[in-house]
Design goal:
Largest sheet: 2 strands, antiparallel
Strand content: under 5%
Oligomer: single chain
Number of helices: 13
Order of helices and strands: HHHHHHHEEHHHHHH
Radius of gyration: 24 Å
Helix content: over 70%
Structural class: mainly alpha
Shape: globular
Strand order of the largest sheet: 1-2
Distance between the termini: 82 Å
Length: about 350
């Protein structure tokens, strides 16, 4: 007789593989969209060239590939390909962005409370409650996308964009930090109350002393749990700081409207660069949002400790590698876009 849990495991594995294939398929479509169709922005519109909006069968209102921006290509797959279109659909139905008393900041504050409830569930001894906590934290992520969507709709901004320096930017960042902290505290409480086992140690036995014939289980101490979570928290902070920094740098170089037609063409050429696309793809994998998705997946599969052990050191290596590659790309983009423009203006 086949255990029902085995069917559920196979179903979940099939869904996971299907989602990964969908992400890769969308990445391929994003690359082809950037290579074959111009990126429109502000007053720079070429009416003589076929636009992506003219050929796509999905309306640009929910198609994430229509409005290609720096933040969009740096955003993780789940937020960009799943949550962003879903948020738009929900907003079209409920018209949340048109309700005046629902502000982006109020949504940001609300998803902190959702994160706290999620963390409470994740700290539970019950796997069912922990899985419920994972789903609740994904709801928090959905709300995080919603507050940005509402802010962009009210400002008539198309596509993903970080309004760096604005009040909403800092409020959202602080609320995200509180939510992540709650999640890590919930994970710590669970591991503290349910310490992982290193293995089994069979003590020597003798016929004269049968009471020593028992099995001892060596438990992981709370200090080691704290160390693993501290390393992961440090990776989250490093990833978040670097990711937001590169969004700011790339936006300043590639999404400025006060430029000439020649510089706008070069900005498009950077987007079409395979090197730039490769760098942005790496950030989709290692940015803070995707790291949290991986942590939640570990909790959902009851492999939290194994996940924390696997990324304790290699996570820093991968992040530093991606940061190094990105610094090289930023330098090259700055030379190509900014310095070339300065040279042209000097010659004039």
């Amino acid at each position: 007789m086949v255990c029902p849990s085995s069917h559920i495991s196979k179903l979940l594995l099939s869904i996971f593989i299907g989602v990964l294939i969908f992400y890769l398929f969308m990445d391929l479509n994003l690359y082809l969209r950037i290579q074959n169709y111009p990126i429109e922005r502000g007053d720079f519109t070429d009416n003589t060239t076929l636009k992506y909006s003219d050929v796509t069968w999905i309306t640009c209102n929910i198609n994430p590939l229509c409005d290609v921006t720096v933040k969009a290509v740096l955003l993780d797959h789940t937020n960009y390909y799943l949550f962003a279109p879903l948020v738009t659909i929900i907003d079209n139905i409920l018209e949340i962005s048109h309700i005046k008393y629902i502000t982006p900041n109020s949504i940001s504050v609300f998803h902190v409370f959702v994160a706290i409830i999620s963390a409470k569930c994740i700290s539970s001894d019950s796997l069912a409650y922990r899985r419920l906590g994972v789903l609740l934290f994904e709801v928090r992520t959905f709300l995080d996308d919603l507050d940005g969507h509402v802010a962009r709709v009210r400002k008539n901004v198309k596509g993903e964009r970080s309004e760096i320096g604005s009040t909403g930017y800092y409020v959202d960042g602080i609320c995200d930090a509180f939510g992540c902290t709650a999640l890590l505290i919930g994970a710590f409480v669970f591991l503290k109350n349910n310490p992982p086992r290193r293995g089994y140690i069979q003590l020597p036995t003798s016929s004269s002393d049968t009471k020593d014939a028992i099995i001892y289980k060596s438990k992981i101490t709370s200090n080691k749990v704290s160390k693993k979570l501290f390393c992961f928290a440090a990776q989250l902070i490093l990833s978040s700081m670097a990711w937001n920094r590169y969004i700011a740098l790339y936006q300043d170089m590639l999404e400025r409207n006060d430029v000439s037609i020649e510089e706008f063409v070069r900005q498009n050429e950077v987007f079409q660069s395979s090197f730039f696309f490769g760098v942005t793809w790496l950030w989709r994998v290692v940015n803070v949002h995707n790291m949290l998705h991986c942590l939640l997946l570990g909790i959902f599969c009851d492999k939290l400790w194994e996940f924390l052990r696997s990324v304790q050191y290699i996570g820093f290596v991968v992040l530093l590698f991606v940061i190094g590659i990105t610094e090289v790309n930023v330098t090259e983009v700055k030379k190509f876009v900014v310095k070339k423009t300065f040279t042209n203006s000097t010659n004039l």
